[in-house]
Amino acid sequence: CIRDRYNNAQIAFFTKIISAMLKYINFEVVKSIIIASPGFVKDEFFAFLKSELEQNKYPELKNRQELFILEHVTSGFKHSLKELLTSKSVQDRVAQSSAVSEAKILEDFNEMLRRNPDQAAYGKAWVEAAVEQGAVKVLLISDKILKAKNIVERKRYIGMTKSVKNDGGTVIFFSSMHATGEALNDLTGIAAILRYSFPDPNEDDDEEEVKSEPEEEEKSDSEETNEITQMFAGLSAVSYT
Q1: Distance between CA atoms of 159 and 167, rounded to whole angstroms?
Q2: C-alpha closest to that of 123 among 196, 216, 198, 212
Q3: Are 139 and 160 in contact (CB under 8 A)?
Q4: pLDDT, tens digit, 9 for 90 and up, residues 67-102
Q5: Taking the alpha carbons of 212, 216, 220, 222 in that order, is the dihedral positive or negative?
Q6: What is the predicted pLDDT for the residue at 22?
Q7: 80 contacts 73 by C-beta, under 8 angstroms
Q8: Residue 70: count of CB within 10 angstroms of its CB
Q9: CA–CA dist 228, 111 (Å, integer)
Q10: What count of Cα atoms within 13 Å lies in the side-chain half-sphere of residue 209?
């Protein structure tokens, strides 16, 4: 038994850490858990944790071992947090997990766009109207538009994120540094998966404008939906480094 490798003080210490994790960490939300220490304490703790899980203890952690990142720091004092958070390996791992999460949300949006286009909003006007109606289940927003130079516009987008959260929705921020963020920027930088069908309220106005300009070729709704769908095709297969 792996417990035989440790004295009672070590077992008590490791058990206390696990109890604190279960008490304070929401594993439905957290993407990464960093365990850091000088020497081999981190490795010993993780070996102890895995041994406990093999004995069917702590079922909340059973399928979450991939969340853990083991890192070396020069000391166990608070100032080592800065050293830890500026570590390239930590930044790369956290960025990768974020990109994978973003890709999954885009895949869900893409699927909704194919299945029910009126439940997959994109563009500022449509998304804002859906937010006002409390119809947004998941808001997808790019960091690019949140950094807009126009302060009024920036406050407007921030207000949308707050409204969605207040209505019980989820807000996912996309990094322009990733392919997923670039794809969202190509789609105006903001989109939403809705709780129910909510057609674009500006669609009729757009159709009137097109009719007044006969020289421009009209696009059917299905053609536009296909174009948007193709933007996201294969995103789930993208490899992030």
Answers
A1: 12
A2: 198
A3: yes
A4: 898 998 888 887 787 788 778 888 777 766 666 678
A5: negative
A6: 92
A7: yes
A8: 13
A9: 11
A10: 6
For residue 134, what are the contacts with CB-CB under 8 A and spacing of at least 6? 167, 195
User: How many percent of the chain have pLDDT more than 70?
Assistant: 80
Q: Is the pLDDT of residue 109 over 60?
A: yes
Q: Which backbone phi and psi does 174 adopt, to 5 degrees?
A: -105, 135
Cα–Cα distance for residue pair 44/1, rounded to 1 Å:
14
The pair of structure tokens assigned to 177 is 């540094």
pLDDT of residue 117: 95
Span 187-210, average pLDDT:
80
Q: In this structure, what token pair is assigned to residue 88?
A: 């390239």
**Among 188, 196, 189, 124, CA closest to 167:** 196
pTM of the shown model:
0.54
pLDDT, one tens digit per residue, over 120-151 is 999 999 999 999 999 999 999 998 888 888 88
At which residue do the structure tokens 């083991």 appear?
A: 70
Q: Which tokens go with 52?
A: 């406990």
